[in-house]
Amino acid sequence: MQQKKNSFSGSIGFVLAAAGSAVGVGNIWRFPYLCAKDGGGLFLIIYLVLVLTFGFVLLTTDIAIGRKTKKNALNAYAAISSKWKFLGYLTFLVPALIMTYYSVIGGWIVKYLTAYVVSGTEAPAQDGYFTSFITSTAAPIVFMFIFLALTAWVVYLGVEKGIEKYSRILMPILLILIIGIAIFSLTLSYETEDGTVRTGLQGLSIYLIPNVEGLTVKRFLEILLDAMSQLFFSLSVSMGIMITYGSYVKDDVNLSKSINQIEIFDTGVAFLSGLMIIPAVFVFLGTDGMTSGPSLTFLSLPKVFASMGAAGRFVGIAFFLMLGFAALTSCVSVMETLVANCMELFHKSRKKMCIIIGTYSLVTSVIICLGYNVFYFDLKLPNGSVGQLLDLADYISNSFLMPFISLLTSILIGWVIGPKWITDEVTKNGESFKREKLYGILMRYVVPVVMLVLFFMSTGLWDIIF
User: Fold this and answer.
1) Which of 13, 38, 61, 90 could cysteine-pair with 223, CB 3.0–4.6 Å?
2) Each residue of 343-402: pLDDT tens digit?
3) What confidence category does residue 13 fall into, taking pLDDT thresholds of 50, 70 and 90?
4) How far is CA 368 from the centre of its chain?
5) Residue 84 DSSP symbol
6) Where does the sequence pass through the membrane (predicted)?
7) Residue 372 to residue 368: CA distance in whole angstroms
8) What is the mean pLDDT of the chain?
């Protein structure tokens, strides 16, 4: 099989590549603003519990399915049971949708990195800078193309020479940059006009200490849903990526140990990202800056960097360079999943499928870019939010398909073929699987119920039914 010709050289290569997929814009952009919005330390505790339970179950399932079947997501479920072949096609739709807009966000990052290199901190911090950029006709497409070309090049080089090689380089650099900026954020201080001094350590306390003031059952469920959606986005589960990467893992790799390392790496980067961003935003923008939501990266942080004086330019360059690395490793994993699946489906070479998938990504990404100008419209989504084309694609993939796929997978593994099918793969070389019993209980009884509730709430069906 062609798949067998492509494999990671060993455990370290697999862990770094999988961590590269997991560590992306979701960790550095999405995690800090959700944490700031949802009570700081309270969100942290809930997220950590979910990582150790649901994250561990979903990650183990995807990787084990990939290695055991030696197939990509499109055909892996058919190899388990012919009646469940449709689940592979549903899974394939997720990266196909994500690929339409991930390069667009990557282009935004490249634009900001370029701005800090060329013009410094003043321009990106101006009101309306981000809006004027994304609503322009040509500029977003140009920067999107640059990011997409880099992604396609890495995927074209293949698994060991491309994905693994660049993950080995980019992930350590990414980690060093995050740690460096996080330490710098804690040393910051700023005196306001009324003489009040805000420090990075004060921002740290806001980040780490749970805020339960006014907490209700409904509010707790909302935080739980935010944390669960972040889990999907962060660990790259239920979208075929980890199944694809699992199919490249050699049989002698200790899966249980590798999965633990991926969990630690991904959660550690998310934690450090919050440590890097939240104290800095608090120092220069106060508690108002903490509630800026998804705009935290492109609207609030440039103001933070501008407030740092001469050092702000270098911090801005380091931050967006780091964010670009994270986005690139994640986008590579999304494109690799599409290429690998299509290679298996159409029996074409990697070169041909890279060209085809690259063309598809380019055309759809251009349409998403034009969604902020030529194709602009306001669309009310089932979850109550209002968005454009990018928001629609993100909603279908993350709020609709991913919890639905996780629900169906938990039924297949938990009740149709049994959790032992997965645990046997994890322990096939005699390795210990300390969370084996926990895996079986969660997969059979807990994951299906929680995923059903999540699916209902994220699609608006919860309010209709209840």
Assistant:
1) 38
2) 988 989 989 999 999 999 999 999 999 999 998 888 887 766 778 899 889 888 887 898
3) low
4) 19
5) G
6) 40-65, 86-109, 129-157, 169-190, 227-248, 269-290, 310-332, 353-375, 395-417, 438-462
7) 8
8) 86
* pTM (global) more than 0.90: no
> For residues 234 and 22, is the Cβ–Cβ distance under 8 A?
yes
Residue 275 sits at the vertex; the CA angle it makes with 274 and 278, to the nearest 5 degrees, is: 65
Which helix (H) or strand (E) segment holds residue 190: the answer is strand 189-191
The Cα–Cα gap between 162 and 429 comes to 28
Q: Three-state SS for 334?
A: helix
Classify domain 2-465 by CATH architecture: Orthogonal Bundle (1.10)
Q: Where are the domains of the chain?
A: 2-465
CB contact at 8 A, 76 and 247: yes
Task: Determine the straight-line distance between the first and last CA of the chain, rounded to whole angstroms.
Answer: 50
Number of other residues whose CB lies within 10 A of the CB of residue 261? 18
Helical ranges in 157-216 per DSSP H? 165-186, 200-208
Query: Over the stretch 419-441, which tens digit does the pLDDT of each residue have?
Result: 999 999 999 888 888 889 999 99
> Which of 162, 199, 212, 215 minimizes the C-alpha distance to 350?
162
What is the tens place of the pLDDT at every residue in 264-287? 888 888 898 889 888 888 888 787
Yes or no: say if 104 and 140 are a contact pair by the CB < 8 Å rule.
yes
Write phi, then psi, for 197 (nearest 5 degrees): -105, 125
Q: Kindly write down the DSSP assignment for every residue of 379-410, as one continuous string.
A: EE-TTS-EE-HHHHHHIIIIIIIHHHHHHHHH
For residues 85-117, one letter each, b for 16 or more C-beta atoms within 10 angstroms of the residue's C-beta and e for the rest, the string is eebbebbbbbbbbbbbbbbbbbbbbbbbbebbe
154/13 Cα distance (integer angstroms): 15
Q: Are 236 and 26 in contact (CB under 8 A)?
A: no
Concatenating the DSSP letter of every residue in 272-290 gives HHHHHHHHHHHHHHHHHHH
Question: Angle formed by the axes of helices 11-22 and 311-346, to 10°?
Answer: 110
**Tokens in use for 247?**
């199919």
362 SS3 class: helix
CA distances 387 to 140, 377, 381, Å, are: 18, 8, 7
Closest C-alpha among 362, 349, 458 to residue 403: 458
